[in-house]
Design brief:
Length: about 45
């Protein structure tokens, strides 16, 4: 389940947010960055 979600976040989330919700590109990239950071937070205790 995490693979497709991470792939969407990497490749399409900023464009999707910009086109569908008229969010500024810089804010859309910031949102997608925080999604990826959220994935990594769960792995941080195991590093």
């Amino acid at each position: 389940m995490i693979g497709p979600l991470e792939g969407f976040t990497d490749a399409w989330s900023a464009t999707f947010l910009h086109e569908m919700y008229a969010i500024d590109r810089h804010i859309a990239y910031s949102i997608s960055k925080w999604i990826l950071i959220g994935f990594g937070v769960l792995l941080f205790p195991y590093v």
